[in-house]
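[job 0412] stage=fold_complex status=start
inputs:
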Amino acid sequence: MTIQREQLEADVLIVGAGPAGLACALHLANLIKEHNADGAKPQLSAENIYVLEKGRDLGAHQLSGAIMNPAALAELVPDFQKSAPLDTPVTESAALLFTKNASYRAPITPPPFNNAGNYVISLGKLVKWLGGLVEAAGVNIFKEFAGAELIYEGNGIAGVITEDKGVDKNGKPKDNFTPGYELRAKVTVLAEGPRGSLTKKLVAKHSLDNINPQTYGIGIKELWEVQSGKIKPGYVAHTLGWPLDTKTYGGGWIYGMSNNRVSLGLVVALEYKNPRFDPHAAFQTWKTHPFVKNLLDGGKLVRYGAKTLPYGGWYAMPRNYLDGALIVGDSGSFLDAQRLKGVHLAMKSGMLAAETIFEALVDGDTSAKTLKQYKDNIDASYIKEELFRVRNFHQAFHNGLLDGFFYSGLQELTGGRGLIDPMRTHPGYENYDKVHGRPAAPRFAGDGKLTFDRLTDVYHSGTRHDEDQPCHLKVLEPNICVDRCAEEYGNPCQYFCPAAVYEMVKEGNSQKLKINFANCVHCKTCDVADPYQIIDWTVPEGGGGPNYEGM
Amino acid sequence: MKILVVTEQRQGKWNNASFETLVAAQQIAGAHSGSVSALVIGKGVALLAEELASKNVAEVLAVDHDLLENYSPDGYCAALKQVIDSAKPDLVLFPHSYQVRDFAPKLAASLGKGMIGDCVAFRDEAGKLVFVRQMFQGKTAADVTFVGVGPWFASFQSGAFRADLLAAHPSGKAPVNAANVQLKAEDIRTKPLELFKEAKSSVDLTQAPLIVAIGRGIKAPENIAQAEALAKALGAEVAASRPICDEGWLPMERQIGSSGQTVAPKLYLALGISGAIQHVVGMKGSRTIVAVNKDQNAPIFEIADYGVVGDIFEIMPALTEELQKAK
Amino acid sequence: MNIIVCIKQVPAKDAPLAIAGNWIKESDIGFEMNEPDSYALEEALRLKEKHGGEVIVLSLGPERFKQTIKEALAKGADRGIHIADENFAQLDPLNVAKVLAAAIAKEKCDLVLTGLQSDDQGYGQTGVLLAGLLNLPHATIIMQIDVQDGKMKLKRELEAGWFQWVECSLPAVLSIQSGINKVRYATLKGIMAAKKKEIATVTRESLGVNVEPTQKIEKIYVPTKTKKTEFVSGTPKEVAAKLVEKLKFEARVI
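[job 0412] stage=fold_complex status=done
writing structure:
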């Protein structure tokens, strides 16, 4: 159906109200305020900054451990210590090695895991608070609106089309059908988080890839309320080892928060060889380790979530400026894979973007030529300082942990150069071994108290979608699932999706792929890890998705 | 304690929940050395009043007036206020019907009193009457008490008490007294017009007292007919867990669960439903849960009052037959 | 037609509830517009589109309720009245209605709409009580409203598939059945315009309402199942017979 779309114009359009997008909006609004106060021309308005957020509320789709380095926040909101909802300062940092029945603590916590000076936070709460500051500054934040399509123009983009609302599951308009808007802006900032759906398409269309493809990990998290006295607020532990083998890159985390809450989870690189590896099951198994079990005994699961993270680092960073566009945050690969810190880098990238945009608006030139200043600013900032040092870190682990320690050790001594610079990688989905039709092992069931099956966990993510809408997970060639993938890889989507979205079900004598899209927690793992790269994650109707309240 | 029960009738036919309310009244009276007056309201209610007189009540009040032939909130409130003013009950009880929802709170308010509606039980705590009702769509229960002096007003949810426990009058018959009320036509501001039945375009499962729900165990759409037959024999509505509605085997409005309706009927019969938490949160407030599943470890059994580990395709027809026998 | 819609904010449907005395813990849970109220709001907006006039949303609750008022403004309501009260959960239905009625009495309106009931307390009395306090005619569980020459023809839902037409003059109070319309989405323009729309904040005291409680919620709790699952076994015929008997005489549900 050809749809008449209403056109709206903004100066700046930011897609995604996470730490990067909101830091960009707030910093820009502050710069504009100062500029206007000085009577400078042209007068600008923060009301011409639009932020789109697909979640039902700010923070609903934010997921992270999280330990935050306060550097960027201190620049953005100088009195943050009084006003920001920081849960607790880190009081102790431990690095633990798990074997099946024991845990060993490193006598000296290696520097990347030493978090003194940082804060344990709920990223969702931080984002909600930041959003309040952004709105108070006059910026328009539109919740429950997603960026569905880019408006390409010339060598860059002219804006974004938001999603159509009120379409039924057969694609027909319902009574309350409301077409998406054609939102045009002088600068569009893509702040969609890891594996942004618009960013992905932009990078492909304009060949913005760097020398390494982006590689990802999946982080699976649970928030628990434990018995009093089990853990100290501010206690931070990272674990290596069991149940992951030396070939599987990943580890666990345990962060003690206030009010007897604990954030815990497992991160696994989506580069493993066994296509039937189940990250969710690995996480549940990790919880049965005596160290974790003892912590959680008598406690209660509060919330569950999952999200990918970009591990690629500096050499996987796409070109982040075009005519009329900038890329910030996880969408732009601003994650320190060694320290597992991305919040401050996301915010800093947003602020640097704001500075460039401000100049561009004042000069009336938002072309790539002017916006390139953003990249130059990054190069001159602590973002590059931090990321360049670890530019080969994740890639060092390509052949497993032992090699990884060796290479990354050398990198530490040589400012990141190591033995090979740059270390090249290939996408994680190319690593799978074939299963040749071998039958699968029974699925993890969970005991319902300490460990849970996927469906129970997904219930605790608060995710919901209007079921009468088209499926937002587009499988471009569904025949492959039955004709090739079943035999070659055993349909890994059933294993890597942490939300029980994908199922192969019997149909007559054969099978078919069933997609329970309403369970989707918007983690993007399927888009990343599918061996044939035929799954295209697109935005569902705004408001749908998880509700990571308190996470 | 003097208890007045306001029964409900339409065009000479009882709303049977009225008898449940009488049972509640008898129980409260028993515990508080009270007496129960049963009231019938409408036009030409003599026969109905006689029927009430055969129950164990202290008296029957018949409110008979031309202007009460068809229900209107103004008419009923004006009439009942006069009756309450003269009869001076301590507690006025109603069945919680659509009609009662429409006028009873206003009646209480006209006397400056509050109403505790939709109660599922009552309790005595050290001589104090505590009413129990559901909150947060059945996720929690609430104990509510009256503050201040009566008359107090309360309504009971359909099925909270069992109508056939209504005791008959010990010595034959209670006195039937006419309660005369003054009403003026111009005081009735809404004009009731025709009543009609309609195939409802949407089903409200939250109002269904009995529900037969099917899950993945039903295997194929052609098997749903067996569940429908059982539902018919039971007088129940058919509902389903999400996968059934996802497949389009039943319309989405029949879905029970976190992404569908939340219900708390008298009876929930779960057939071939595993009991995943997404479904359970939509029905665990049900008064009685019966689960049939061939997997003895299915989580549904954790919340069921009665469980049958068996094949639903054998149990469904057997139950249907048994229920039809009883009719 | 000037229409006042009473709306409320309730915990999100999927919010895990933690009980605190006679209410729930409000921290770390999401809130949303009471779904039945959204149908009332939609009905009001449709009536305004047809007959002109103004839609005012009225809400009694703590500061966080302003978010829900803004959502209503974003959908097309013209202005909002927020009766600020942090202790709203302790007010019984009659007193809630008294406060709302005091605010409504200050406005010139033709119609007051409420949702069927709230998803938290679920009394379903507000509309009826407002009618009593404002001395206006009312009707509940309304499926359809036809307005002509200052009079309304209303379709009322009854039990067991029955319906009734009712005639009622304006002004009046109506409680709207859920699901009678498809609720509209807030548009971008609507959201931006909402920022400039007025939300008047008043208090119970400023409205001159004296609250005299008529009932009290002593406590709320999760109903615990005192019985263990009773398994019924035997041949299908035996199981059926035993089950029907238990349902009739033990559980007393049929």
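[job 0412] summary: The two ends of chain B are 39 Å apart (CA to CA).
[job 0412] exit 0
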